[in-house]
Amino acid sequence: MDSRTVLSFSRRLLWRRTLLVPLAAALAACSALGRSETKQAASPTQGAAASQRSEAPSSATQTTTQSSDSTPPAAATALPVTPACEDDDDPTPPQTAGPFYTPNTPLRTSLLESGFAGTRLLLSGQVLSTRCAPIAGALLDFWHTNDVGEYDNEGYTFRGHQFADDQGRFTLETIVPGIYPGRTRHIHVRVQAPNQPILTTQLYFPGESGNQGDGIFDPALLVELTDAAEGKQAQFTFVLDVP
Ligand SMILES: [Fe+2]
Hints:
By secondary structure, the chain is of the alpha+beta class. Helices cover 12% and strands 26% of the residues. A hairpin with a 2-residue loop joins strand 9 (224-228) and strand 10.
């Protein structure tokens, strides 16, 4: 089992252990700049509407990240098989999109622009089905604040979408988002398998003092965060509720 699989499996175990997080907490709202983010599950209707504002997945726009050939060492074949993940694995929980989503974002894997401020962040991961099958061409649409907690609601700064490669893998180059009043540090994302409903959710950062006081925060949505030579690296595996 490679490190990515370990992280993915551990995350899903963590989520199972937190199933009892009161739903009422997730219904709490946060506010910023006079607007609020309220809990709402992504619905097929909502997803369809958003889908019309997004580019449909196509082979021409898929990222070119390639999977590595991970032939197991000979010794590993003598051990009992450890499942990479279980059938009917739990899907990534939905969260509110909040009021700051802007459709028709640019197609790009890097949100860094000249003169940007903040700590570099390389977010990578995989999009899987509930049977742990990679979802090739999955759409991922990210948006977050700048390093001082402000959204660009006029343009597309720190907004962009991309498509997972043929192994469901994605990489996003951006910065660690800032914090704004009422919320802990987070990244918004919409993830969609081709011709399937959209998952709208948020990603969180471990070790943030604001996590526990944030009514929307869900530990199942914590990224694995490590230091990098230049900034931070984060990993997350999305599990979409598709077979
Ligand atoms: Fe937000």
